[in-house]
Structure prediction request, 1120 residues.
Amino acid sequence: MHDATQINTYPQKQGFRVRLPRLYGTRMLFSEILSIAFLAVLIVLALLSPWIVPFNPTEADILSNLLSPSLSSEFGGPPHLLGTDVLGRDVFSGIVYGTRVSLIVALAAVLGAGVLGIIIGLIAGYARGWTDEVVMRLVDVQLAFPFILLAIMIMYILGPGLLNIIIVLIVAKWPIYARVARAEAMRHASSDFVLAATSMGAGHGRIIFRHILPNALTPLIVVAAFAVPQMIMYEAALSFLGLGLPPDQISWGSMLAAGRSVLEQAWWVATFPGLAIMGTILSINILGEALRKRVGPSSDID
Amino acid sequence: MKAHHAYSLLKSAPLVASLMMGSVGTSALAAELGTITIATQLDLLTLNSSKNVTGWHRWVYRNIYDPLITLDENNEIKPALATSWERIADNTWRFKLREGIKFQNGEPFKAEAVKLWIDEGKKADSQARGSLALITEAKVVDDHTLDIVTDGPVAYFIDTIADRMSALPPAYYKQVGAQEFGLKPVGTGPYKFVSWRRGDRIVLESNPEYWGGAPKADGVVFWVVPDASARAAAVLNGEATLGTAIAPLEAPRFESSATARISASEGGNRPIWGGMMMNRPIFQDRRVREAVNLAVNRQAIVDRLLRGYGKPMGQLCATSMYCYDPAIGPMPYDPAKAKSLLQEAGVKDMSITLHAPQGPVAQANELTQIIAANLKQVGFNVSIRIDEASQFSAKLYDFDNKGKDVGDLFIYFYQGGPGSETTIRSLTNSKGNWNWQYYHDAQVDAYWDQAQKSFDQGPRQEALQKLSAKVRADVPWLFLYEPLSVWAVSNKIAWKARADDQIIIQDMGPAEK
Amino acid sequence: MSCFILRRTLSAGVVIFGVVTVIFVLSRLIGDPIALMIQPGMTVADIEELRAIWNLDAPIPEQFIRFLGSALTGDFGLSIWQGQPALGLVLESLPATLLLTSAALLGALLLALVLGSLAAIKRDSMLDRTLMSLTLFGQSVPNFWLALMLVLVVSVHFHLLPPAGYGTGSHLVLPAIALGLFPLARLTRLVRAELLDVLSQDYIRTARSKGIAPWLILVRHCLRNIAISLVTVIAVDFGTLMGGAVVTETIFAWPGMGRLMIDAISHRDFPIMQAGAFVVALVVVLTSLIADITYAIINPRIRYA
Prediction:
């Protein structure tokens, strides 16, 4: 069979010999570099958004609505690079601001669900017995009811808001981390280094977080990498159902939802946020895949 | 274009043939209309006409049942199952009922059938109960005479039952029970119930023995398509004959279409208005309330967001309603005057919350943002809150805490049309159970009283006009606009949107050549 | 074996009880259905009477016990808005959802087997790389967005398939694609990965060295081996798909459970919410139960795990 380096490198054309950098000892693919670049641009945009947006993206200006993308301005002032939406809001500014919301929601939700799920999962997997049984049934309960219906109910109760979306996503996604963490804890609980630590009199907490967690981290990071795009997608779906943010805040999902009724008259309103969502998810998926190939638990290469 | 023409010629060939063969008349017409498929936004909750009288239920009921009293396309009262009626006492109306009519199962139509409808409608499990609250009882005088007693004199009583009240077949109803009847209804109407696949479609077929003459279509299908874009697409693609509640923003899709067009009503039956919480300090100053009104550019909202399918308002009632006063124009847009009014009132950088429900108010997200932008321009600090419909109404009804969770200015709708006086009364009367904004005005109460008790058109109209003028001067509402009803109509039929938003198959005809 | 099945069934029961309890609690937090029914002219007494019909005036623990009591006999009460038995309404809408989800999953599975095998056999070829990029892409499209685009392109512009509705096979195609693309992408990757794993095993090498055609090896030896992991993944995906169906059903006017549940939630129709939660949990739990048992039969070692 092939060896790993060969698989991960495109056959390079004559005369095109760019030396791509290495990640975990394996040369990176062009698509991976591109993904990193895309995400880097997004993060810079998100950080610098207050200084680079030409318009306030949440300020309605109904009299200049549905202007098509253009490099010149009709009324003076900065041009609407990607056009305006139904309310006359600048689509470019909206996408730049939406980057913030989408990334904050996704990262906060992944982090929150990760921390919660990992703690619960590690304890369950280490303690076994009753604790484990209860936790696993809780996980099953959560997974036996469609996320979107649960999310709708919780959003109805909490009302729209950034923090509330994050809470919903955490509630919905902790079981996956709990499952993986539990499996890892069970795998390592009987390993030599844990037994050694136990014999030296280490407490349970110390064993779980100092000995098991570091060893379980790699697969969990891979799970997290794939969870980020999922969170972005869920945020978009909730906004699409009208359950995301209050209308004076903006996200890619809400822009997409707002653009759908004018799809045929003003393609730009929904297309650009759609591309932003897909580009981001694709980039993160490519990088997640890259990570999994190199360090993943169920690598499909070796 | 030419191809389309040839296609329509080809299609009319059978009609030409049938005309030449001499089989002229309704049967040829029935063949021409064929099956009418109506794409609606919501499925029915029940097929029992006494349990729900909301508009989208009545679209279906109108075909299975007949109303006691109906409305014509201009919202004028017309007889149907009742041939005539008169007031025999201040609180009693006597109805003469049509004779010789049979229910679709053969049962004869008698006064007890109407009484049964009223009794069933007044039961606790009926969602029609609120609209029948005015009725204290129904009394059968003889087989074709019925008395209805109201709770005190109610001048607009006939308006409130028009196109709503109908009849249930007593023997069949007793045999199957209310629950089963809601699944397999029998009425006196032009179409018989065939099947109901919930969430998908209700199928009706023509009732050849209909007392009002042969029905125009072979069958009627009410097809539930919850998504507005999908409804538009279904009519554009020729899968539905008629599509309800088309989003105005999607209307341009029909401009270039050869298969379907848009038909809009003249007036709107679901006016959008803003309620200012009168129990809060900010809105106790009339000048502030007026400033809010002057700050909002209604015409721009109607032109841009509603694509012209709406009318700016300046009073309680919409154009199609009895209480509408044409002398009162729409509220002007005058941000400069709004600013000076606020200055006069000593209001600076006032923070207010704008609150709206998602769903009941179409395009609530967009609308609130435009209003907020308008209000910001005259110096308010506005924050927006959107709630899901039921959360929103729970906050409105929190009378125990004086609606503390409702925003300072909330956007809502009311169901207009004939009979909507009850609704507006509930909204603005001091004792009204929909007076969520705590608007208390003795004079307004007095005008309502007068209007309810005046059976003569003159004094009644006068009371309502005074009321409208008073409320306009008081500006407890942010007057907004009445959205028109926008329908998608297949070019296979001739049809025009009615003032009462009803769909009546008998109004339809084959496409004009 | 029977002990294993018994234990799994027992925990399945616990899970269903858990779901129903959670939904009961959430439904009581979500708001009062009666507030939506108040009309002008109704008195306080009328409103109290309405509450009493559905037991909403009783203390919450009492409501819960009464609900459990009747639910055990299969009675989930009458729908608040529709006046018909809630469980009946849910079961009426179940076939449409099952049809949609199984069509999406089955289509995805069959296609994934073909594409995944192709990718694995032609490993590192242009075809493999293209397919793998496409699968990443397929996992990056939000399903509601895909649904809208399908309607716009396939129905509105090219008039190839109906934009919405239920009944014939042609109505099924678009919603099934919208729902099935994500699992298709996922399963294709899985099939490829599993096949690569199996292809590197000794017995396959032996078979290859004997000169047996690769396609024959694939069908005879490999597909049977990857069936186990496919069954597990599909069982998990089935639950996810029932969730995804909620949005798809709305866009395509598909008369399924997802829409019924969304309507019930927005109307606060508690009996339908509870009956729906019960049925969904039952379907999901049964699917994974069957998967587990199948798994245990195929691979006896699992019983002791």
About this structure: Residues 1-29 of chain B have pLDDT under 50 and may be disordered. Residues 277 and 437 of chain B are 4 Å apart (CA to CA).
